[in-house]
């Protein structure tokens, strides 16, 4: 599969001297759904900030579509990748949900903003709240509004940072249903191992700023020694089973997300 995203032996040291990436290499192909797993401080966020061109490697290269990200082309390449941060309240700041979703495409100078907003809100089941203030929505709705804001820019690659944090089980299921229908290449940064199992065929385990395991999620999560070694734990009674990808879709929700 041709690579859409690549990191080749990337190291990164923060200005205070903390070495966050210690030679990270990874390849992600178009339309893959990949989980980035790892303990706190492993380097997941730092890696994502490199993929988005927010941070520049100390050494090594990051490529999107076979093009090395440089200071010159970053503005253009950045439109390929959309990041949904963990806290939706960091992302929502306009007076209405519709205006918030329009902000990104407007900022990029894209066409057909009204259609993009309509489509993105429909995808996340929030058309009916387009005129409401984002902070009057539930937490689950705010997370979906933040996702809509990124989807409206139609990025090729979507990165979701801890998408299930603070969600109740119903909101979590609604989000699963939404993500499973998206066609973009998706990277899910998470501690929620069952969620990675549900949505991602493939997982990468990050520790000490490197990729320490790369393989089918079912296999990685069945490897107790590997998980324990990297401070990853499955919830009580959860046993990853090999489920064919075609049947891993969740059943449709009983009602449309509200
Ligand atoms: P993760 O997302 O896996 O929790 P991070 O990428 O946030 O890991 O952090 C990797 C390492 O870099 C950790 O040691 C963390 O303390 C350090 N780090 C993260 N951000 C900064 C920063 N702005 N300045 C200095 N060190 C940082």
Span from first to last CA? 38 Å
The backbone outline, from C-alpha atoms, is globular
* Averaged pLDDT: 91
Order of helices and strands: EEEHEEHEHHHEHEHEEHH
Helix content: 25-40%
CA radius of gyration = 18 Å
Beta-strand segment tally: 10
Biggest sheet architecture: 6 strands, mixed
| Poorly predicted parts | 244-258
Number of domains: 2
Structural class: alpha/beta
* CATH fold annotation of the largest domain: Rossmann fold
**Distinct ligands, ions and cofactors found in the model:** adenosine-5'-diphosphate
- Biggest sheet strand order reads 6-7-8-3-9-10
Number of helices: 9
CATH class of the largest domain: Alpha Beta
Strand content: 15-25%
Which architecture of the largest domain per CATH?
Answer: 3-Layer(aba) Sandwich
The CATH homology group name of the largest domain: P-loop containing nucleotide triphosphate hydrolases
Helices and strands in order, then pairings?
Elements: E1 3-13, E2 19-29, E3 33-37, H1 44-51, E4 59-64, E5 67-68, H2 74-77, E6 81-84, H3 97-107, H4 113-123, H5 139-151, E7 157-161, H6 169-181, E8 185-189, H7 193-199, E9 202-207, E10 210-216, H8 217-221, H9 224-229
Parallel strand pairs: 3-8, 3-9, 6-7, 7-8
Antiparallel strand pairs: 1-2, 1-4, 4-5, 9-10
Bound molecules: adenosine-5'-diphosphate.
Explain how this protein is built.
The chain has nine helices and ten strands. It has 258 residues and is an alpha/beta fold. The chain has two domains: 1-80 and 157-258, 3-Layer(aba) Sandwich (Rossmann fold); 89-154, no CATH class. The strands form two sheets. The protein has a six-stranded mixed sheet, with helices on both faces. Strand 1 and strand 2 (19-29) form a beta hairpin. Helix 3 crosses helix 4 (113-123) and helix 4 crosses helix 5. The N and C termini lie far apart (38 Å). The relative contact order is 0.17. Mean pLDDT is 91; it is low at 244-258. Bound molecules: adenosine-5'-diphosphate (ADP). Adenosine-5'-diphosphate binds next to helix 1.
